[in-house]
Structures are given as C-alpha cells and as structure tokens.
Amino acid sequence: MSTHIHGVQQAAYNEFKLNDRIKNRCKVNKNATPRVVFNEECQMDRKSSKNIQFGRRQRTYQRCQRQGIPRNPKTLDEIKTYLEQEEVLNRIGKTLHCEPKMFYQQTVITALFAYCIFASESILTNLPAILNMRIDGTFKVVPAGPFKQLLIICVDVSGHSFPLSYVLLTRKTQAAYMQLFKQLQSKWKLTPMTITTDYERGLRNALRMHYPSAELVGCWFHFIQAIRKRASKIPGFMTFLKTDSSAKKLYRKFYNIPLLKDDKINIAFELLKQEASSFGTRFNEFIKYFHDQWILKEGPSSISVFLQSHRTNNLLDSY
C-alpha cells in the first residue's frame, strides 16, 4: 500500500516538475508558441506527460510567455521610437537570412496621417525591370493602436507572387496613399506593367498619379463581393432570387461580366438588361446600380480581367 502511495506521489511530483519546465521555457522563449514548447517538453518526458492536458494550462503558459514583454507602444511617437531601438531592430526589424538585412524601413508621421513601412531589401534588389504588382488592404490583423489598415504590396516574378512591402496606415485617404507611393518611389524605382487592386477610389487615384504607364486591373473577387453587398441592400431582392431559380441564374451572370474583353462588356450588359426586363421591375434597382457603378463610374477597361493570369488578389491572404 505504501509503495503504491509513494508511486502516485512520485508521478504527481514528476508532472509538477514537467509543468514547471514548460512554464520556465515559456518565460524565456518568446519566439516559440506555448503549444510548441509544450509538445517539445512532453516528447522528452512522455511518462510524466500522460495526464497533462494543454487546454487546461494554455492560459497559464500564455501568461508566462507575456512576462517580461514590454507593453505595446500606444502613440505614433512611441511606436516610432520603439521600432528604432537597436534591440527591437535586431529582434523583429531584420530579415531571417544568413546575412540579415533591414526589414523595417521607416515610420512617417504627419498632421493628417501616418504610415509605417516594412520591406524586404533582398527582394527589392532582385526585381525584374518590368513587373506586375498586387495591392490589397486588411483590417483584421492590425495591432491595437493608431494604425487602422495593413496594406500588402506583392509582385509577380516567374509566375509566383512575393510580398514586397507591408505598410501600416492610420488612414485610407487619397492624400495618405499619394504620400506613401511618393515615398516608395523615392527609395525604389518600381516600373509596374499592371497593378491589381480592389476598387477603392483613393488608392486607385494615387496609383494612377505615380504609375501613369501601368494598367490598373480590378480584383474579380472584390467585384463580386461589392455586387453581393449592394444586392443584399435592395429591399426584397435577395428573397426574390431565392424563390425564382431563373432570376437567380440571371443575377449570377452579372458576376462573369469581368471575364469578357473590355469592348464586349457593354454589349453583354445590354443583353442581360434586356433579359432582366422579362421579370418586370424586379431587377430595375440592381440594373441601375450596376450601370452607374460598373459601366459608367469604373468603366469596362477597369473591371475586365480578360486573359489575366491571376484574376483576384486572394493569394495575398497567404501573407
């Protein structure tokens, strides 16, 4: 009996020591996630790890890892000062090559907006003379603080897309984009042949100003997303499409208009418009929206993705 009790106590002690080792490693290792640390330690001591569950201790390990990490800078001046510290530059401001190069470039603060540029100098120095560029913005992964958008700039090389630059912006205005691309051009003379973006007006206007010889191509995914969003706001329209398969089929044909050559888009729109008249006034508001937004405002040449090797910017989500 006493031997059994001693064995139970020893097992509990071993589990305690293993858990302690995991917590200590989490405190000193800021690069590996708690899950990675947990798995590595459990692999080295499988006997003691039988009854230890990561889910029950995850928050404890995360708190251990946060110890010693300085608080996130809150203001633009704090962010700029933080990123320019030598210790921070060595930890997160350089690439992971055998010979690290600068990844953090600069933080620019003005009265109306600010932006923070990260870019790979290794890629920049090996770019072809003429290239295709892709630009997309996201709000989901932006750190809490003054920055509101992360702009990702990629380039296509040999059939593959590579991230060229990441830019944190406080505002998504035309003035902010104008200043940003002026800054990028002053540092790196890029000569894009095509630039694929969503249909954000300020961004596209700034690109036209700085890259007048480049062809601006719209993102097919964002085109469909915009149509769906607008259609859902038309009273009763989506309900009507759900109850009439022929109407739904016609509606979805509008998704494919950008697949046509630009000089065929107006013809296709008129044909679909004529077909929509067979449903009475049901399509009237949608037809007016499509005509005003995509035929007149954006224009056929802007929305056409005819013969484009990549019709969307979805691959940027990988970065």
From TrEMBL:
<feature type="domain" description="MULE transposase">
    <location>
        <begin position="134"/>
        <end position="225"/>
    </location>
</feature>
<dbReference type="Pfam" id="PF10551">
    <property type="entry name" value="MULE"/>
</dbReference>
<protein>
    <recommendedName>
        <fullName>MULE transposase domain-containing protein</fullName>
    </recommendedName>
</protein>
<dbReference type="InterPro" id="IPR018289">
    <property type="entry name" value="MULE_transposase_dom"/>
</dbReference>
